Amino acid sequence: MNEKSVTILVTGLVQGVGFRPFVFRIASRFGLSGWVQNTNENVKIRITGSIQNINSFITSLREDAPPAAIMENISVTDTEIESFTEFRILESHDVSDEITEISPDIAVCHDCLLDIDKPGTRMDYAFVNCTNCGPRFTIIEDLPYDRAKTTMKSFKMCPECRNEYETITDRRFHAQPVACKVCGPHYELIAEGIKESNDITTLIDRLSQCIAKGGIVIIKGLGGMHIACDAFNVATIDKLRDLKKRDGKPFAIMFSDIESLKQYAEVDAVEEKSLLSWRRPIVLLEKKKRTGQPDLSENINAGLNLLGVMLPYLPIHYLLFRKLTTKAIVLTSGNFSNEPILIDNAEAIEKFSAVTDALVLHNRDIINRTDDSVVRIMDGHERIFRRSRGYVPAPVHTSLNTDGILAFGAELTNCFCAGKGVKAFLSQHIGDLQSVETTLFYEKSLAQFIKLFRIKPALLATDMHPDYISTKTGLAFSNLPVLMVQHHHAHIASCMTEHRLDEKVIGVAFDGTGYGTDGNIWGSEFMICDLNDFRRVTHFEYIPMPGGDRATEEPWRIAVSWLYKLFGRSFLNLDIPLLAEIEGEKIEMIIRMIDKNINCPLTCGAGRLFDAVASLLGLVQVATFQAEGPMRLESLNLHNFSECYPYFSREIISFDKTIKAIVEDILNKTDKATIATKLHNTIILSIFDTVISIRLKEGLNKVVLSGGVFQNKYLLARTTDMLRESHFEVYSHFLVPPNDGGIALGQLAIASKRRELKCV
Ligand SMILES: [Zn+2]
Ligand SMILES: [Zn+2]
Predict the structure, then answer these.
(1) Which residues in the chain come in under a pLDDT of 70?
(2) If you measure from the C-alpha of residue 366 to the centroid of ligand 2, how many angstroms do you get, rounded to a whole number?
(3) 3-state class (DSSP) for residue 327
(4) Residue 369: CB partners within 8 Å, gap ≥ 6?
(5) Ligand 2 being an ion, which residues bring their Cβ within 5 A of it?
(6) What is the pLDDT of residue 146?
(7) With contact defined as beta carbons under 8 Å apart, do 536 and 527 qualify?
(8) Distance from the alpha carbon of residue 112 to the mean position of ligand 1, in angstroms
(9) Is the pTM of this model over 0.85?
């Protein structure tokens, strides 16, 4: 007989995504016997059958895997022929310190949504899940991924659930969080500090009435608490702004379905794919101009032309929208500004009972806190701005030995990164390390990643900034060697690592702030670099930043700095909005600070140039959220308009002529959109010219774009187009954020390369 036995090892994201039942099904389909087993390293399969059937099995394994599975490697080896009576799923087995990947959380699937309509123990049940969907990373305490190592361990399966869990042909076979009304977690509604109801029908009724009446509610979700309210109610959203404490940041909106969403936002095919993907991120979309119809409250998105929108991803979202009359709710992180999203019930009750109308909490603990992820489609690809739920903890696969390297990240928008083998595990979005709560979350998550991924720290990497909490944490971590990495070099290395580039490239790193090797604040860096080292070729001209970080919060300070530089005191006679909006005394104080060089660090951050112009145009004098100035300018951009301002470049790039021309345009009452677009075009041209001249001298053709400024769609798309037309190979971020949330990956890559070259 033409029989044989083979052993197949599958690595990648293959646990917790319905992989073993899938293997079982295809083994049955092709009449093969043997077994499948989860180990902490991989999924191991042994099968016996005809050569033809084994080949068909392998083809199906490659082509028909469950949607959330990401197979990295499939190895097949012939083994001594072995006969089995059936195909079985064996107990999970811990074989070493190696690990398999942990699945991110997966939005509730179509089949499970059908279950909540059917009579039975899952009718209207808010925790329905199966092997294809449900919580994963947020509930996991340790590997391998088994119920006993998740926060589902405190819920004892009822006989029915147990039966499904143990029936190989069932959709819930080995679905670790399997649950039903009888045995699983449940929600309860708390109003005015009193537990009102845990009957789901009553609870959803109460919740929807509360939202309809303009109430603000807390809903506990997968990775933390959300605050929700009607997205059409101006007064409620004003109240919500007060509650979140002087935070002007745009709120995310959840729409009931894609059709309703399309009435309010422009959606192309790639954007629709992201919105509907099992990761269910917040997608930044252009707001539709509507006339004469009820519109979303203006105070949701701070008057910008972008909306952050998402679709339901938990059963409770679907249950809620069935009752609600509104098609959209604000769904924002349950926290006060600068604090991490709340995960603890008692803390939520303590902090939010008095300031919200109801809390809807459940009794399944959250181990790994995650926010909603944020993406934007640019140049036809999904770009991740905030990487958390649905994306974490999937690793970046590198071509480097990352083993044992811990990279601590930056200060704002922090994520850290842990290396294992050739993989880089970037943490979920941690936030701004400026509150005690966020720092605690940071430290706890670091410990959790080390445990979960069995990291044996051997080498540490931090930013060069001596005052970053992350730098201090790295230095205090242990006695291990610490490598301090320049901020913008790390940005470029991060993007290179995603694309597995390990050579000399032209790096363009544009952001707001980063500590430079000359002690100044960098952020418009043109560098020639590889993963080991960098050489700064040129940058924008430095300008005093009166008050240091205060100037980031108050863009008018940087505008005054520019005006004083270009016009001396005579700028005080100009007829521009800034002078009408800011008191003369304050402006005099800035002039004195500059004259006497008091707390005026020098900056060349590209973000500050945008800030200065945003202030000159009267768009933002005091920012109410990060990067408000640049975002408002981008919001104004015209399409099909290619005019530029003059600028000047020799050793450094000077925008003196640009700002002078902008002031002139303002005096001539040129419209703001024209000025904003011309500014963008000028910066794009300056990038293009500089990169061309570097290519001429150095013969390099690969350009890597990184830094938060490249979240600007207009800037990224036009720069990329122009460079490609001149036959450059252009690289930008797909897998990790271009902002400081991606920097830890770069720190890790640089540390790895220096270790390889024995420079540490
Ligand atoms: Zn499901
Ligand atoms: Zn049950």
Answers:
(1) 1, 94-100, 246, 291-292
(2) 20
(3) coil
(4) 138, 223, 224, 340, 341, 343, 428, 441, 445
(5) 158, 161, 180, 182-183
(6) 85
(7) yes
(8) 4
(9) yes
